[in-house]
Amino acid sequence: MTNSQLKRVVVTGLGAITPLGNTLNEYWEGLASGRNGIDFITHFDASQHRCRFAGEVKGFDPLDYVDRKEAQRMDRFAQFGVAASLQTIADAQLVINELNADLVGVIIGTGIGGLKILEEQQEIYLNRGPSRCSPFMIPMMIANMAAGLTAIHTGAKGPNSCTVTACAAGSHAIGDAFRLVQRGYAKAMICGGTEAAITPLGVGGFAAARALSTRNDDPKTASRPFDKDRDGFVMGEGAGVLLLEELEHALDRGAKIYAEMVGYGMTCDAYHMTAPVPDGRGATRAMELALADGGIPPEQVSYINAHGTSTEANDVTETRAIKKALGEHAYNIVISSTKSMTGHLLGGSGGIEAVATALAIANDRVPPTINLANPDPQCDLDYVPKTSRPLEIDVALSNSFGFGGHNVTLAFRKYR
């Protein structure tokens, strides 16, 4: 397919369930004000865990979106995904009916899926025997169910899939959806990521891998990307969903447009199960591919929403990759990690961070990296410390990197 045959793709709807709030406006207000969504874990007794805090979603009621029977048959990750998707459709004012249902699809990624139901049913199995296991355990647990249930609750009958690529899953979902709209396989795609892994096993497993911060005496300052005193990431939960729509389709129905999506790059380090390749070449190439895909010279980039996990390896590696991908212009752009406020949503992170990137473009304001008090000398770029900043944003990138060496960069620009 030639470039002239490719469709322009725009963002016309957004939805967010996050540690900063359960609506789009609450999420953006939290980001713009530098609010901290991290605190001690309340989902379970974490007193025996190495890490006892996380970015929990607070006050979420699935009954605001689905009836009680449906809610009871969904794991929390699927509840988040469906809720954020319904928000997105409402925000976009898109009516899905028999006339257009085949042209609207869904891709929602997750890194882990239904961990909560798996833990609960394992305990039932061990204590009461296999005959007492729920017949809904498997459909509640499997990772594709957020995408499947979103289709059921929205009526979208077009392309439907689920990406499961660890912390890159949400961004892969958005990138794959972009390709489907760009190439004419769908008129609109509901896409993003969701995760709900703040469970005893989830927190225990990441802590055992020495991936999590153990700043239990001061959890509010534990997520500190690019800071010399960082000691690991902080788990978060929630979902971020976008509606990507063919431009002409959006214009025909008078849709509002947050931004245009113009590029998608994905690579693999092929190096290590959990560590990034130290020179950052996989992440570099993902950014270069996204820029080339959108026909964007590096000097047009205004902002990067960094993966920025607050881990020793990621933050230095990502800084190196940005410098290699953008050259000297890396010192002229602004970069921030919204994980400093939300924690790391694993497979949901690419979703809420793409939402944040689109909102930054629409509002010409860059969210901050809070808790950046003592910058790592190896991280010497402008990370927008502590407070948000007004900035006219032309092009913005959103980076996501996952265990297994997955690297994704999404490129957005102001719609003109």
From TrEMBL:
UniProt GO molecular function: 3-oxoacyl-[acyl-carrier-protein] synthase activity
Record-annotated active site: C167 (for beta-ketoacyl synthase activity)
Biological or metabolic pathway of the protein: Lipid metabolism; fatty acid biosynthesis
GO cellular component, one term: cytosol
GO biological process: one example: fatty acid biosynthetic process
Keywords: Acyltransferase, Fatty acid biosynthesis, Fatty acid metabolism, Lipid biosynthesis, Lipid metabolism, Transferase
Described purpose of this protein according to its UniProt entry: Involved in the type II fatty acid elongation cycle. Catalyzes the elongation of a wide range of acyl-ACP by the addition of two carbons from malonyl-ACP to an acyl acceptor. Can efficiently catalyze the conversion of palmitoleoyl-ACP (cis-hexadec-9-enoyl-ACP) to cis-vaccenoyl-ACP (cis-octadec-11-enoyl-ACP), an essential step in the thermal regulation of fatty acid composition.
Family to which this protein belongs: Belongs to the thiolase-like superfamily. Beta-ketoacyl-ACP synthases family.
Record's protein name: 3-oxoacyl-[acyl-carrier-protein] synthase 2
UniProt source species: Rippkaea orientalis (strain PCC 8801 / RF-1)
